[in-house]
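@channel sequence for tomorrow's demo:
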Amino acid sequence: MKTRGFFGKIATVAATCAAGALALSGCAGGGAGGATGSDSGAASNGGTVKVGVAMPTQTSERWIADGNAVKSGLEAAGYEVDLQFANDDIPTQTQQIDQMITNGATMLVIAAIDGTALSSQLDTAGAKNIPVIAYDRLIRDNENVDFYVSFDNFKVGVAQGNALLYGLGLTDKDGKKLDSAPKGPLNIELFAGSPDDNNAKFFFDGAMSVLRPFLDDGTLVVKSGQTSFDQVAILRWQQEVAQKRMEDLLTSTYGGGSEPLAGVLSPFDGISRGIITALQGAGYGPTIKDGLPAVTGQDAEIASAKMINDGIQQSTIFKDTRTLAAQSVTVIKAMAEGSEPEANDTTTYNNGVKVVPSYLLEVETIYTDNLKEKLIDSGYYTQADVDAGVVKK
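structure tokens (generated this afternoon):
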């Protein structure tokens, strides 16, 4: 009889690991062991723990880094890995996950394009006792999501909001209001991420939690009047869509660039670069010192790291993919050994069906004055990478 539920799933994976150990004197060794057949995905792989890793796209360097870091970490631990990128196409990702299950994946790590579009695949995984780890993006509306590994997404938004306030001279880096702060009103505009990404609303809500008091007292004004998530969201986080929206706002609300605009809340570096292109095209800048509005960001992409270093983009949120990948490997190891993975949040992330146990990592805000310490001295980039705006091979 097939064992159901989370503990049944990790027991199945652990049994697979044990079968491999009998044949190879070690868990997760690179070859088939002597396990007998079963209707579970784990046992069907004959003692090898095979992890399917589904990433959303290769159009963002962040996801390439994530995928490669997870793959290398799992392979170093002795697991077999099937890494696939879906190029922001939902049917492609669903097909890739279906194929991973067909090919004998014993665990799945999924960074979903659309967190609501994988029910069929998750149902199949649940029926085969295959544990599913949601990677950085929560998968919604299905009981077969066993664990979530991410950064604290509300705090990411708080950090973005605080970075914008600091860039406007209203607070210090810790969010403390300055006595010397300008009285305002200061014009700002708001952008949010993709509405089909569960994280996007957390980012926006976190940022608005610190911006709202300044909006309520009139220090900050969203001159366009576009303040709701639905009004400011950018589908698929597309740079070109963000640039067009910013251009439209400048034309409709800021006299094509003749009216003052102090800052723009941006949730992602690609969106930030689109915004900055529109701003510079309208005559703002070209740098912050020359009057370019303060623009926030996220992911510390190399092109934006260069722009921060050059005084063009005001800030970005650094989510170290090395730590996220390492934590994912830790979760998978625990499951393979039949243990419950450590969670540091068991209340926040309700996917519409269940609260998914989560491990949340901390983030750092990058400005010009700490970029070298956080991104270069840590080995994430080299100085040559940042100077060129591309990662040197």
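heads up for whoever presents: Residues 204 and 227 are 10 Å apart (CA to CA).
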